[in-house]
Amino acid sequence: MSEPVLISEVGPRDGLQSIASVMATPDKCAWIDALHAAGLREIEVCSFVPARLMPQMADASEVVRHATSLPGLTVMALVPNLQGAEAALRAGAHKLTIPVSASEAHSLANVRKSRQDMLREVRSIVALRNERAPQAPIEVGMSTAFGCTLQGVVPADEVVWLADELVQAGVDEVGLSDTTGMANPAQVRQLFGRVRSAIGERTGAAHMHNTRGLGLANCLAAHDAGVRTFDSSQGGLGGCPYAPGASGNVVTEDLVFMFEAMGIPTGIHLPKLLAARSLLQAGLPQEPLYGMTPLAGLPKGWQQPD
Amino acid sequence: MSEPVLISEVGPRDGLQSIASVMATPDKCAWIDALHAAGLREIEVCSFVPARLMPQMADASEVVRHATSLPGLTVMALVPNLQGAEAALRAGAHKLTIPVSASEAHSLANVRKSRQDMLREVRSIVALRNERAPQAPIEVGMSTAFGCTLQGVVPADEVVWLADELVQAGVDEVGLSDTTGMANPAQVRQLFGRVRSAIGERTGAAHMHNTRGLGLANCLAAHDAGVRTFDSSQGGLGGCPYAPGASGNVVTEDLVFMFEAMGIPTGIHLPKLLAARSLLQAGLPQEPLYGMTPLAGLPKGWQQPD
Q1: B98, B203, B101, B288 alpha-carbon torsion, rounded to 10°
Q2: Of B243, B258, B300, which is closest to A296 when you measure between CB atoms?
Q3: What pLDDT, on the 0 to 100 scale, is given for residue B225?
Q4: Global pTM?
Q5: Interface of A with B in 133-192 (CB under 8 A)
Q6: What is the pLDDT of residues A141-157, one digit of tens each?
Q7: Is the ipTM beyond the 0.90 threshold?
Q8: How many CB atoms lie within 10 A of CB A155?
Q9: Chain B contacts of A257, Cβ < 8 Å?
Q10: Looking at the complex, does the CB of residue B273 fall below 8 Å from at least one CB of chain A?
Q11: Quick check: B213 contacting A, CB < 8 Å?
Q12: B239: domain CATH number?
């Protein structure tokens, strides 16, 4: 029996904040319920950002309160700053995830802070967590870890340096994100290997994009490098705004199919996961959904593990 | 410097015979020219089958004659039987590829022959080749090697047995095809590993489909298992008729991007490969083309190796 992997669903946050439509709160909750019923045990349900900047996330507290009623679910919220962290902990989020850019150019463009400023912000969030909710893990998703559309190459040494700084700042898990779809499997194996050498078991999730079709190959490479947590998005929700039709996030359905077919347990019931798609589509009738396994269906003779 | 890989383009045969439209001969030739100009050095240009069964391939001899005028190109033709092999060698094909099913049920359905009957057919093609064109290699693409939509599981022992029989019959290369999109990376590593143990350097191409999104991950797994030849199709041409929108063959553009990004030389010039797509589209204006790299474009800072 292979060691299980954890699929961390990011669609309700990463997916929904990337599209123009705003999903109604009851639809979000029904979709999260269906994901939970399919066996998802970690879901990034929202982002705590000002509603005027991101109306899709205006109901963040309500969604967190609903999601925390689901048994066995780790409810994760994205928080870009201390204020967001305060709101997330107040709403009862179980786990916080902070986006920190490996690329200085992307950091300045995305959050208008240098990486050093973000490290200071992370330290203040850790201090808040230690005081208010010491049981709540803090994850950093290190964006642009594999390359940046603004500055191009991101040196591996800087990724390793930043991972180390983040752990020293008190972060529990540091994952690597291929924000721009520039990663390749050789790089993924090497970079996760180096980060693991530096920070060991604090190495967090692989957050891969499918921008150039390499999403699953990069997840396989990350798995080879010892990664056991993978971010993905149902229906590949969260497209690349600069490349219409080019999906962004790895598709949860295809990722779960890959691992289950390999005999690597995900704890997810694939037919129920495929069924959850209809709740997502019902809440966003105009939005295109991606994924090959949903189109092709499960292979003849497919046995859902118990 | 990594060992190079050979990308064997199958679009002009596998792609074009899977669609309803018939591409005009001059359009086929112009597309093959563009693929050659991009650096492709093995192209499966046609199938020698009766024109009444497959009107898309009625110009097989003419296409072979054109393609053999291109310097440095290995011109491959698919031949399902002795009669096809005679016609292909007469036209001047450099290399023959014979489809042999690992699944007995698929063999009977596809070519109305048992596997034993196909082995006899292969022996007669080898005898013909030895007499008429001893320099022409014969490849077998073993279809349904990873599973079959008719019979379900295909035992690995039968794949290894058949590979061994084919080599004994005089075949130069035996590749494994995921005809039905059922392969997973763990299986790919294991099965190619076993076949390589049995037939060594006669182990041929990985022919992967992207039916459930695992095409590139399976190619990566095959590469890990020592495979150095990969079949793919420009634009993913050659869809799954039973799953609209679910592309069949691995997309050449994405596959080349993956290997080149990993620093594994393909000999292919990516911008020219992307440009060849417009010739394919010009010849088949109604046909949808797939591929993520063409949609997203090459990453910022992409350096085409010399």
Answers
A1: -70
A2: B243
A3: 98
A4: 0.96
A5: 147-150, 152-153, 180-182, 184-187
A6: 999 999 988 888 899 99
A7: yes
A8: 10
A9: 212-214
A10: no
A11: yes
A12: 3.20.20.70
Q: What angle, rounded to 10 degrees, do the helices at B156-168 and B185-199 form?
A: 30
B245 inside 8 A of chain A by CB: yes
Asked whether residue B98 carries a pLDDT value surpassing 80, the answer given is: yes
Assess if residue B148 is contained within a domain: yes
Q: What confidence tier does B247 reach under pLDDT thresholds 50, 70, 90? A: low
Average pLDDT score over residue span A164-188:
96
* Closest to B48 measured CA to CA, from B62, B35, B34: B62
Q: What are the residue numbers of the active site of B?
A: 240
Instruction: Report the interhelical angle of B82-91 vs B60-67 (nearest 10°).
Output: 40
**Nearest CA-CA partner of B222 in B209, B207, B202:** B207
Q: Does residue A239 carry a pLDDT above 70?
A: no
**Interatomic CA distance for residues A111 and A41, integer angstroms:** 29
A219/A221 Cα distance (integer angstroms)? 5
Q: Does some domain include residue B213?
A: yes
Q: H-type helices in chain A, by residue range? A: 25-37, 60-67, 82-91, 104-111, 115-132, 156-168, 185-199, 215-224, 252-261, 270-283, 292-296
pLDDT over 60 (residue B96) = yes
Residue B238 domain-assigned (yes or no): yes
Q: Which of A141-150, A162-171, B75-84, B116-125 has the lowest mean pLDDT?
A: A141-150
Q: Which residues of chain B neighbour A240 with C-beta distances below 8 Å?
A: 296
The CA radius of gyration of chain B, in Å to the nearest whole number, is: 18
Structure tokens at B132: 């008429």
- Range of the structural domain that residue B58 is part of: 6-296
Encoded amino acid at B211, one letter: T
Count of domains forming chain B: 1
Q: Is B292 in CB contact (< 8 Å) with chain A?
A: yes
Beta bridge partners of A231: A8, A207
Residue B1 belongs to a domain: no
Beta bridge partners of B207: B177, B231
Each residue's pLDDT tens digit, B153-197: 899 999 999 999 999 999 999 999 998 889 999 999 999 999 999
Burial of residue A286 (CB within 10 Å: 0-12, 13-18, 19+) is exposed
Cα A266 from chain centre: 16
* Average pLDDT value for residue range A203-222: 96
C-alpha A219/C-alpha A209 separation (Å) is 10
